[in-house]
Amino acid sequence: MVLRPEELRSHRWYGGEGLRSFSHRARTRQLGIGAEEHLGKPVIGVINTWSELNPCHSHLRERAEAVKRGVWQAGGYPVELPAGALCGETFQKPTAMLYRNLLAMEVEELLRSYPLDGAVLLGGCDKTTPALLMGAFSVDLPVIFVPAGPMLRGHWRGETLGSGSDMWRYWDDRRAGLIGEEELAGLEQGLARSPGHCMTMGTASTMTAVAEVLGLTLPGASSIPAVDSGHVRMAAASGRRAVELVWQQVTPSSIVDKAAYEDAITTVLALGGSTNSVIHLIAMAGRSGIALGLDEFDTASRGVPVLADIRPAGRFLMEDFYYAGGLRALLAQLGDLIHRERRTVGGCTLEVALRDAEVYNPEVIRTQQNPVFAEGGLAVLRGNLAPDGAVIKSIAAEPELLRHTGPAVVFDGYADMQRRINDESLGITEQTVLVLRGAGPQGGPGMPEHGMLPIPEHLLRQGVRDMVRISDARMSGTSYGTCVLHIAPESHVGGPLALVRDGDLISLDVPGRTLELLVPQEELDGRRAAWTAPPPVYGRGYGQLYAQHIGQADTGCDFDFLARDGAVPDPEAG
Fold this sequence. Notes:
By secondary structure, the protein is α/β, with parallel strands linked by helices. The chain has helices spanning about 10-15, 20-30, 35-40, 60-75, 100-115, 130-140, 165-175, 180-190, 205-215, 230-250, 260-270, 275-285, 295-300, 320-325, 325-335, 350-355, 415-420, 455-460, 520-530, 540-550, 560-565, and strands spanning about 45-50, 75-80, 120-125, 145, 155, 160, 380-385, 385-395, 405-410, 435, 470, 485, 505-510, 515. This is Dihydroxy-acid dehydratase.
């Protein structure tokens, strides 16, 4: 099916003889756009999450120009529309996750309320990718995603650095007294050397890879470094393709199905990707009208090997991954673990998109016969401490801690943890299980990345670099360690985590997929009867709206009024 110009959605704004159509054309002339430049042409929204407080997206102003160039070349009319930048956890507090759904709402309403026939979505920093796609799925106009791309490798004193991963490592060295202020100042200048998102396999790299395997980017787009000239060419090509998608009426719902989400899970596991992807993929699938649950991640994890040797679980960085062949090369190695007959916005099936993919460095991208890890790096845990599930990135943990029982030391919120973590009177040893609660979707608020609890300084000085840590928080995809995350339901709403006391024994068994609080049920019943809900965090505004409608981690943390089915009419434009 190919649309005729009068069938374009934007024609309802610009066509006809009515007063409103006249007004719309007149206001477009006010913008300096002549009739021949836009009438009868697809109007392509360029949704740009650029901001001066988002270093990961600092190049997207220029990339938007490349996208618009491509739209013009293909006979479309581009209009750039700004949207929330959501700067990872770098600047936005208490967490950018608090605002993921707000950006999804903004994108949905931008696409619906303006005379757009399709859109190019520019993002990449952690929550921007799922937010942009969630909003687009809810409207179902033709869209294509332009990933921001990873930054260049970090460097310091001859060492290659990975953003996030090496920050945590050297910060622990600083706390242990192994490096000083001079070294720290040098590290500040070497960790992040260019525009682009984290160049480790953190949440940003994981989620842009997800966008590609879902079929919503041009083939190979997610691996291109942000400052590579190929990234500019990809942006322009995406603009050209966006126009074709409108004429052909290729919408997300015609591409993204259950098989696409199964392939996304497989890809996350093969990449050794971020635990945050679990929450985002469940939310995205919900917007697609597709049921996706924690157990599907765990089942897949048992059968998908880790093939990408990328930090924090591996040795290399995203720039190396790109030179080794990028995501296309990795997908080609997955063979029949993925559904190759699926369509993509590139105009071909995944099979065709991967036909000439080649691995140029078999150390970075492994074969299934020579994996980095034989099983995927994520595990879903259940038990009386996490009845609705919890997640651990097992490949980023010390193997001897994957089965561990130890006494709890409990912190009620991040501020309490910061204040007391180095208090030696708490009796924390390497056998202790550190517990953080009040850090979930409601309690955080927003489920901040506090799940990689710091190791007490007296243990760091003894050489301890990992401990069992559990929380209802998330952690950065660039982090590592034996960190049990996303415990559901969270403590703030009365989940079992709220009942844990100092000294309680907690048993973690990752191979057995269990997380248990070893306290008699009658004792827990008594604690439950004495428990009182904490007061609301917000008394007004967006925060209160968030608290009233946010879901738990196991359901994707979407708003209930956005995740459900329901008709939303297109606006009357005449």
